[in-house]
Structures
1.
Amino acid sequence: MEINRFIEMVVKQSIDRASQVLSKTLRAGAKIELESISAVDISQATERMMAEGDKEVMGCMLDLGGDIRCKFLFVISSKDALIFTDLMLRNKLGTTEKLGQVSESAIQEVGNILSGCISNSFSKDFDISVMPSVPIVFTDFLGGIFSNFIFEGSEQEDSIWLVQAKFLVVKVQIECEMFLIPHTQSFFHLQNPI
Amino acid sequence: MKAKILIVDDASIMRKILKNILVSNGYDVVGEASNGQEALELYKKLKPDLVTMDIVMPQVNGIQALKTILDYDKNAKVIMISVIDQRHALKEVIDAGACDFILKPFENERIISAIEDCLHPKAKDTKE
């Protein structure tokens, strides 16, 4: 499954913008550590994540819909979600001690802002309409969240495009990851008007 | 007298952030709603001077809620605050009668200036 180079460039630009928006949201520099777009076999991708499966994370999952379709997932370790919450509330670090409604809401809002930024980027670059759905937040092991994400995003295909971006929030040295599964058919028609 | 404001956002952290900004700038946050349906109910009950409204929300979204509130009270002042920065959505909220549109993430000053402009609109320059 070949990935169109132009679409790859647009996706990478949207991730760059998402990184800038993440920095502004947290008021802490966020840089992209890893960015990849690849066609992957579903079982291999799931196995790879299952290998890291014992890490408890908070995940925010949603769908981008409209003129294109795409599955979105943002994950962060539960421990780092507490730091994110303090950064968003401009609290002294360490103020939020337990996961709960506030930290879930913080991760929901980060997912909302990042997915909104990606949607806006696609909308501007292709002159299309893309709207994110209401995010759902989970606390679970990474393997479980990721398999669910892959299962829902694959739509019974054997292989998918998987976009992966790892962000490092420099000030507090925490990592978080964002994944996208573009629905290939909905992206192919984007080549025509350009 | 302090202006009465209703905050509508499905993320409790955003409501908390907005409430902190508004209260520290002398506004009275009279209510909070987490979706468009609750927003209309609270609008009727609390009669706020201004509403801040998110767009992407469960059940009834912010654009639908904006239209419903303006159907109920054509003088309602509603500021949309959203991550959605797309031509079709902006056109829809402006056509529906939103007072202003603020993109997330925002600076505190942008919120305050938008509220002041909506509550106290300057007379338009009528020079021909």
2.
Amino acid sequence: MSVIVSVTGLSKHFGDLKAVNSLSFSVREADVYGFLGQNGAGKSTTIRMLLTLIAPSDGEIEIFGMNLRTHRKEILRQVGAVIERPDLYKYLSAYENLSIFARMSGIKASGRRLMEQLEQVGLAERAHSKVHTYSQGMKQRLGIAVALIHDPQLVVLDEPTNGLDPQGIADIRHLILHLSRHQKKTIFVSSHLLSEVELIANRMLIIDKGRKIAEGPSDELLDPAQTIVELDSIDPDFTATAIGRLKWQSFLRERSSGQFIFKMDKALIPAFIQDLVREGVQVLAIRPRHSLEDYFLSLTTANQHVEAFTN
Amino acid sequence: MWKLLQIELFKIFRRPRTYIPFAAIAAMILIIQLGLKFDGKSYLLLFMSSLSDSFYIPYSMILNGYLVAFVILNTLLIQVPLLVALVAGDMVAGEANMGTLRLLITRPVSRTRLMLVKFGASVIYTVLLLIWMAVLALFLSMWLFGTNDMLIARSNVMEQIGRADVLWRYIAAFGYASVALSTVAALAFLLSVFAENSIGPIVSTISIVIVLTILSEMKIPIYDNTVKPWLFTSHMLAWKGFFYSRSNGEGAAIPGSVENLPAILRSLGVLLAYIVAFVTSAIWVFNKKDILS
């Protein structure tokens, strides 16, 4: 499978705020790639950088093997996107909106083609109604129709199920799976709900505070036999050197400033601690999380605790 | 480029609010025309009362379509910039507010091209507004009041322009006015880039035009040669120059002549320079801008 999206050391700073911090990942052809993180983790900023809405402070983005900075037009011709809310021209009909964005994407879509696309998202019957009369779910589906009208190879969906009822969520899920399985499209879908992403994604990336927490095949990441272990130490550089000498280096998944994140079988944790102490690592805390889901939930819960204190 | 321009125009003319300025202009012109139709003599007396004691004044001949159009343009071309700002100020900020700007930018169109097309659409809208104004102010007045020689009141003289010498002056004046109004459109367009709601740029444009117009009209010597020549508002009414002819030895207007064409062209140059500066700045800012809306 060829790499469709390759991101290396991507960062975005808004003043002192590091919204995205040295993020690297890759999306392969025909992946349904889940991009997970709680609200404010940096998902939308990353997606906006992938779509040239925001200029990165640092790092490189390659899509279809081309540099986004130098080949923007060629790349965007093959990309469709729904970014956060599916905002469209409310005073125009679905048909007119679709027609406008088809032409802006450089294709001549016939009336039949436009109707087929609306049919695919279940809006053919309301094709000529003004968008301001649409429900949130209908707008979301129209947004997806707009993203697909030029038959893109890569589809980027930012929180596509936000504000939808359970039936709407299921419809979007089925559509994503259909696009992936039957049309071989590469789907990059962000969400703050692990439960939602795990149903559709074959690979996923989890970020928190702009940094990568974990990336890999969904079944591996969500393997209940594996445990995520967070390690805090007094001297992170010394700890890194010590770990480098040990077999535990191969279990290391991520390092973010003072914290190290490992993934290992639960039974190995005591031996891991013994080795660290033997090497002179001054351990502040070791927190085992029983699964990725547990870990992801802990991030959300921790933030809720902070919000509870600050509100 | 033409395809994108068509899309922009389609979006503009499918919005009900686009037609408000057209309706406002029509209402204002009809009110003036009705007033002059039924009480034009009183209006003329305001300006010619001193002459009426000594001369016979053929009011019905003086109050013809050309003069009425001139009166209307004098009155309206100060207000029309405000109407132009309604659309131009909405071009980028309105899209940001609707959330459609981010969709536009994810299409394979360069930001520079997008901005040029949007400004082009603003200019076309401005020109259409002026054509609408010309049709109502000039041609409807010609139909309602007939045509004759045109009398222009200047500071200390009355100038008479022959009937056959008027129409081209109106065409030139409307052409100039379209550049003048495009300058306001360019300002509103620039301010639109900074905002995510069209109210801000529209109100800011109107405020700037009002403040600068007051400054342009003030008779304070220290500003006359230092500040005023550089204000675009000082050059917006130079269209009137097309109605001032050179006179021959006997004091009669020379047909086809313009008293001070170089001054009009200089003013036109200043306005065009402003347009280039505003639009270039808008494109530069927009190309650097992170789209967070």
3.
Amino acid sequence: MAEKKKDELLHDHNNDGIDRRGFLKCMAWAGTGALCIMQGGVLKSYSLSQMSQMGGKAPAGELSFAQISDSHMGFNKPANPDVVGTLKAAIDKINGLSTKPEFLLHTGDISHLSKPEEFDTVDQILKGAMAKQVFFVPGEHDMLNDDGKQYLERYGKGSKGAGWYSFDQKGVHFIGLVNVLNLKAGGLGTLGHEQLEWMEDDVKHLKSSTPVVVFAHIPLWTVYPEWGWGTEDSAQALAYLKKFGSVTVLNGHIHQTMQKVEGNVTFHTAASTAFPQPQPGKADSPGPMKVPAEQLKSVLGITDVNYVRGQHALAVVDSTLG
Amino acid sequence: MKVHVGMAGLLVAMVAVTVLLAGPRSVAAKAQQPAAATAEVKVDNFSFGPGTLTVAVGTTVVWTNHDDIPHTVVSTEGVFKSKVLDTDEKFSYAFTKAGTFPYFCSIHPKMTGKIVVQ
């Protein structure tokens, strides 16, 4: 189970390069609410309590948004018999953030069985968010039985193909990708030729100083291929983003927070608001993981993202629901 | 005469009984095929069990989802395709032709299986 980490002060690193130990410490803290900001190649880390002492000023910047994922509305097995309650708790948590997010990203598996009433319930709960705009990308659970027709009708306005699109907010370029359709037997997630061509064209004329955020359901890096946790043709997509100084990739699907930094790209997966899944290889299969009821909220969560103009990377902070 | 009628009556009775006995079966033989064989695939823990199932032509294979997460059963060659199966839901397909039929779960494509029909 997730180890309990103390909410203590971390050190600034005044090295020229990235301090490996500090870097690893940062990554380990990511799941319990720590903030890692890259400033000119130097990794600075802050705990949540340190941030609150600063009055929420340090990480607050010009753009703030929150990511939720894998609400699986309709799931009702022992791992969480109340996914409505935990989604509401996630929205409450987001509404309580010191820097209010301007919009939300939902990285898919909105519903559990693609049922209309499941989508309706999520839409209803999201109305309780102070941030009124929500941007979605579908998970494989959202495209059952109809290859995503219902998903597109509900959430795909202005999107292309299976539901990919891009938009800009305060100088940050957002790209929503769909990697859960036309999955091949034995395969991983897939973006497909048409979407990749669209993406190449979409970013072609952007300045390399534009921060880019890519969001898609299945991780765009290979987390654990045995469980299908990866995207077959993501390398091509990432090649189109090579010129950018700051790329943040936000994914879901694996129901746990994970982070990886590769050059200018920060990959990050969010926790689910519904149920956790085991760490790679730590169970027979990636199914819903049961934890004692009183621990459930500690393995579900939201992600808060802040962008400060001039900073290299976006600040990505995970917090659990309890 | 008496004997003759008796014999005829007995014969009629015997024929009648034979017809009664034979009747349903012959009706059945015309209206139904021989009882169809079924075989089972258990879907559980993100896997199909058995992974490869060999059956005779004419067998109906029944997949039952025992997992706590939904799955689908989709032929890679487009021969059959289930709707999404939640826990305890089933999908059946009657294999009337010999051959090898690989399939997978379209939600979790790493889940693959094969039906061999001989």
